[in-house]
Automatic annotation (TrEMBL):
GO terms for biological process: proteolysis. Keywords: Membrane, Transmembrane, Transmembrane helix. It holds the Pfam family Peptidase_M50. It comes from Paraclostridium benzoelyticum. It comes from the Bacteria. Its cofactor is Zn(2+). This is Peptidase M50 domain-containing protein. InterPro entries: Peptidase_M50. Its main location: membrane. One of its GO terms (cellular component) is membrane. It is a multi-pass membrane protein. Residues 15-111 form the Peptidase M50 domain.
Length: 167
């Protein structure tokens, strides 16, 4: 297999392998802040299928549902009871994108400061690209029109909704 063919295949493979993990960390950002700022039960849902494997850690339950298609490997969401405290809601909504940005920043620092093999450069660069993209797709205030998020709004959109209530 030639090097150019490997380059063509490596980023989709990195995407398929890293996105479920990046989504889990993003959703854990929301969940941990919700656990700290509330006394509520918090649930994380990863995947869109019906595998329904769950893990419970005190007030946190993580549901691993599997994926109906490769298009859905970036799906995750967190449920907590609605908050009437705007500042707490803003912090909980901002925590997921912040984690995505911190992961991207960490991989950028590694890429910039360490001499890595060609393969690790590709892997780390892929993780950097996908985590930074995740940050951008969740921090910009939009209503999603693509699968599997049709009908949902971004974290940035939710933050702006809470800021409008504040002012």
């Amino acid at each position: 297999m030639s090097l150019s063919c490997l380059d063509f295949l490596i980023y989709p493979i990195i995407y398929i392998l890293s996105m479920p993990i990046l989504v889990l960390f993003h959703e854990l950002g929301h969940a941990i802040s919700a656990l700290i700022l509330t006394d509520d039960i918090v649930s994380i849902y990863i995947g869109t299928s019906s595998l329904n494997t769950r893990f419970r850690f005190g007030r946190l339950t993580i549901y691993f549902n599997g994926y109906s298609s490769l298009m859905d490997i970036s799906y995750g969401c967190v449920n907590w009871n609605p908050m009437y405290n705007n500042l707490k809601s803003i912090l909980m909504n901002a925590a997921g994108p912040l984690i995505s940005l911190l992961i991207a920043f960490r991989f950028f620092i590694i890429l910039d400061n360490y001499h890595l093999s060609y393969f690790l450069i590709k892997v780390y660069n892929g993780i950097f690209i996908f985590s930074f993209s995740q940050f951008l797709f969740t921090i910009f205030p939009i209503k999603y029109t693509y699968r599997p998020y049709i009908g949902f709004s971004s974290d940035g959109y939710k933050i702006l909704q809470h800021l409008k209530i504040l002012h």
